[in-house]
User: Fold this.
Amino acid sequence: MEFYFVEFFIFGLYLFFILKLEYKYANYTFIKPHELHQTDKLYLNIVFVVLAILVMFRENSIGNDSITYFKAYQRYTDVDSDERFELGFSYLIMLSKKLSDYPYMLFITTGAISLFLFYHFIKEYSQWYFMSVIIFVFLSFFEMNMNIMRQMVAIGLTCYSYKYLISRNIIKFSLTVFIASLFHSSAIIFCFAWFIYRLKITYKNIALSIFALAVAYFLFDVLLSNLFLGLEKYEGYKDTIWGEGGKIGALFSASIYLILLGFTLSLRRKWKIEKRTDQLDGLFFLCLTGAGLLIISYNMSVVGRMASYFNAFQLILIPNILKILSRRERIFYSIIIVLVLNIFKWTILILRPEWNVVYPYKMHLPF
Assistant:
């Protein structure tokens, strides 16, 4: 199965639901908002069930690291069997082995957890599920669930911590981020979100953000040695492919996120009218941090993976801004965003297929 089947499914299903509503309300001037929301919710449920099945029941050849996890599962006898894996993920492996020694069980458990966390995040905080699904698929969060499995569980947990970020419960927020770090130690970087989310969009704060990015970029080697999360395991990345600068890939990815942020910033006037600046300003700076980390990953590509903790908030930032707009404006800007994301996605699939070894997709059924 190629990617265009996934693309056809998510667009085709949504078009089916919309046309069904348009037909039902053909003699009315507008569709009832409640029924439109229920249709959007049904769409989200169906799509995520299908995506979860694809993630959970895949061949071990699908995904860059799948075969590594597959073999690790086979040799695991206790939580200390592989020092490369964090304690939380090791316990998840042991729990999965208690359910079954079948190696594909790890794909099932991690896929179920991570997809549920993303589903919950979108369901709770997005105001337009369709656009969240588009971003989830076209910014490769879907494929990442088949490549960087334990980190996607961690990202799902940091997304879950958003409820404590907005309620300003620092204890529960810190605890959730700590639990996320037990699945991937890089998640500890999300602690900075507590301070970043409080920023307001002003010329001063944007200027300070650009200055901080410049300092981090040009003093990267010093920061890596002394401040880079204090994680010894990242020393090992220096001499691997993850330690090489991402170069064109890093800048290309960063440029897409910056284009999306430019779009959101251009519509800030609408935020003020709707009195939504508290939430959307915070989301903007979280996503700006992610774009900044992608630029820094020009020096060391593994930093780009840390950007995903912040870039995941595009899943709710873009849809919530679009929902503020009038119907005509929403359609216009949605078409532009979908086109930009299509260009981004297909450029990667054609020129850099090794980034996500997912297509052609193969399913593995346990019977």
Q: What stands out?
A: DSSP finds 19 helices and no strands in the chain.
